[in-house]
Records
---
Amino acid sequence: MNEYLTPDQLCELVPGTTKTYWAQLRFYGKGPKYLKPSPRKVLYIKSEIIEWLENSARYGTHPDKVAS
């Protein structure tokens, strides 16, 4: 069964991030998948967050330095 995280819980899972950061990612369509069960509620699936983070691994700051 999936574990769901609120934006506050997500900030605890990924130190150094804020609710504003995750809101901006949602707005620009750049972040991980999320659920919107009601107009004021946002939830993230923990396994999706971990996969999204692992897929963002880099070896350097240059765009071509994506980890494989």
Note: The mean pLDDT is 93.
---
Amino acid sequence: MTIIIADTTCGLPRKLLEERRVPLIPQVVTFGEESYHDDRDLDTATFLSKLKASPVLPKTAAPEPCLYFPFFERAGKRGES
């Protein structure tokens, strides 16, 4: 069996992700010196508020490997790829 793991920038509807049981890994968003995990501790309203108030534009980064590893490990134990 093949599984799909996505990050929060995948653009797929939340309902589809839930129906297909696709794990969603948060993108990292940084405003100045503060980093947030998208959709976990930074919702859309908070992001827009910070965007309006911040003198610098936010930066993004790929999710840390430590966030993906548990999903890969579980899939491997179940014989999925």
Note: The mean pLDDT is 89.
